[in-house]
Amino acid sequence: xxxKKLKTEKKLSKHKKVPVAESPKKASPAPKKKAVKNKKEIxxxxxxxxxxxxxxxxxxxxxxxxxxxxxQREDNTVKWTFLEHKGPVFAPAYEPLPKSVRFYYDGKxxxxxxxxxxxxxxxxxxxxxxxxxxxxFNTNFMKDWRKVMTAEEKAKITDLKKxxxxxxxxxxxxxxxxxxxxxKEEKQRLKKENEEMVKQYGFCIIDNHKEKIGNxxxxxxxxxxxxxxxxxxxxxxxxxNPEDVIINCSKDSKIPVPPAGHKWKEVRHDNKVxxxxxxxxxxxxATKYVMLNAASKLKGEKDWQKYETARxxxxxxxxxxxxxxxxxxxxxxxxxxxxxxxxxxxxxxxxAGNEKEExxxxxxxxxxxxxxxHIKLHNEKDGKQYVVEFDFLGKDSIxxxxxxxxxxxxxxxxxxxxxxxxxxxxxxDRLNTTILNKHLQDLMDGLTAKVFRTFNASKxxxxxxxxxxxxDDPPAAKMLAYNRANRxxxxxxxxxxxxxxxxxxxxxxxxxxxxxxxxxxxxVKKQIKGIKAxxxxxxxxxxxxxxxxxxxxxxRLEEGLTRMEVQATDxxxxxxxxxxxxxxxxxxxxxxxxxxKKYGIPLEKVYxxxxxxxxxxxxxxxxxxxxx
Length: 628
Hints:
Elements: H1 2-13, H2 56-63, E1 83-84, E2 103-105, E3 108-110, H3 114-124, H4 135-148, H5 151-156, E4 163-164, H6 166-180, H7 184-201, E5 203-206, E6 209-212, E7 222-223, E8 236-237, E9 246-248, E10 266-268, E11 277-280, E12 287-290, H8 297-327, H9 333-348, E13 375-381, E14 384-393, E15 399-405, H10 408-418, H11 433-443, H12 449-468, H13 475-492, H14 503-537, H15 541-573, H16 579-585, H17 589-599, H18 609-614, H19 616-621
Parallel strand pairs: 9-10
Antiparallel strand pairs: 1-5, 2-3, 2-4, 5-6, 7-8, 9-11, 11-12, 13-14, 14-15
C-alpha cells in the first residue's frame, strides 16, 4: 500500500498526467486511512521510469514528509497531543556606538545615555527614508524618544530639527558595505551559525513528528512604520523580553529554558490552540504569536478546512442570493442595509470591515464601515444605468476605486440610506460586522465574508481557466492564460501593487532581446530561401540536409520568440497587480494542481518551492478531474 502511494508521488514529481487521488466531489472529511508510522519512502522502478539517484539532503527531506491528510481525523478542537520546542530567539542586546560616532544637538556633539542612544539609532538608520520627512512620524518619534531620556537630556533635547544623526547613518552604511565585502570564509561562518540556530530553535516536535517553526525569532525594537498614512508611525516598538512571553507546550515535554537571569511570563499547556509562544506588542496592543511553518500539518489543515467550507457554499449560494434580494424590499431598514451589504460582499468580494477606535489606526474601511463620502450614485454613466462609484482606502491602505452597475432596487436603497446624511456619516448606520457575521453564520455554518471572498475568487479562477486555456497552445501561451485567470481574481479582490522600480529597465532589455530574435529569424529565413533556390538547381543530399537543419533552427527561433513575446505581454499586464496574495490565500490550490496535471504544465511554473511545500496536501490529493 505504501509502495503504491509513493509510486504515485514519484509520478507526481515528474508532472505526468496521472490521477493521484479521487477528487472530492463535495466537502468531505479526510480520507480514513491508518496513520503511517514509518515515514521512509519506497521507490519502485518501472520499465519506463528508471529510479534517479538523488542527493542525500533531498532524500532526507522526502523521508520527513508527514502525510497528515491521509490520516483519520477525530477531534477538530484538539490541535495536538504532544508539543515540545525550545522557545523563541530574542533580539540581541543593544551594542553602544563607538566613541568616534557622535550625535550632535544644535551643532555641538552630545553624549547620550545607552537607552536614549538606542532610540536615536532607530531614527538615524532611517534618515534616508521618506518616513523621516513626515510630520506625524517625527512628532510620534520625538514624543516616545523623550520618554526614555534622562531629565538632563529632556531639558536639552527639545527640537528634532536641531538634532543631527548623520554620523549614525554613515556608520551603519559603512557596516553594510563591510558585510557585503566579507570574505567567503566569514560568510560561511555566519551561515553555519545561522544554520545551528535554526537547527536548535527552528523546529518543534508535535505528535512525534518534527515540524518546522515559521517565525521563531522575536522582532528587534525599532520605529513603527505602519501601512499607508498610519497615525502611530514613528512610535517606538519596545524590546520584548522573556518576562513578556507566554510559552505553550505539553505538560510532558521539556519546558523551554528562558535566557539566563530571566523567567517566562507564563507557561501554558493549551492543546486547543496552534501557537507555541505569544506576547503583546505595545503599538496596537495586538497579540503576536510564534506559529508553525506554512507547510506544517496545523497550517495545512486550516487551509484545507477553509477551502472545504468555501466549497460548501456551492450548495446554498443560490438560496442565500434569493434571500438577500428578497430582503431589499424589507419593511425594516436594518434588514435592507444588511442585504445590500451582503450583495456587495458577494458581488465585489469586499471585506466585512472592522470597527476601530478613532485616531488609533489608519482610516481604512470595509463594507460595513463605508461612509457616505465613499460612494457616488450615477443614474447613468458610460452608457450603463444605476452605477455606483466606490472610492475608499481598504486593508493595508490600498485604495479601492471601482464603478459598477447594480440592480435598480440596490441603487434605490442606497439613495434611501444616504438621505439626510453628512459625507462623514455611516452608509450602513444600522449594521456592524458583529451583526453581519451572526447573520452569515445563520445562513450557513462557518460562513464569513472571507469565505464568500474565497468562494468567489476560486470560482472565478476555475471559470477563467476553462475560458482562456486552449489545449493546442504551447506551454508559454497556457501560462499566459493561467496568469490572466489569476489576474482576474486579483482585480476582483483589489490586490494591487506599485509598479516595480526595475520594471522599465527590465522591459527595455526584454524588448531588445525580442528585436534581436526577430533579426535572427529574418536572417535564417533569408538563408533558407537561398538554400531552396540552390536545391532547385542541384538536388543534392547535402543541400537537402542543410535545408532541413535550417528549418529546425527556424522553428526553435520562432518558438523562442513566441515565448519572449508572451513574457513581455504577461509582464506588462501584471505590473500593477499582485498575483501572489490571491494565489496563496484565496484560491483553492487543487484548482491549479488539476489544471497543471490536465495540460502537462510543470507545477514549478505555478508554485515555487516554498509554495509547493505549503500546498503538498493539494498536490497529493487532486487529480486532473478535480472541480472546485
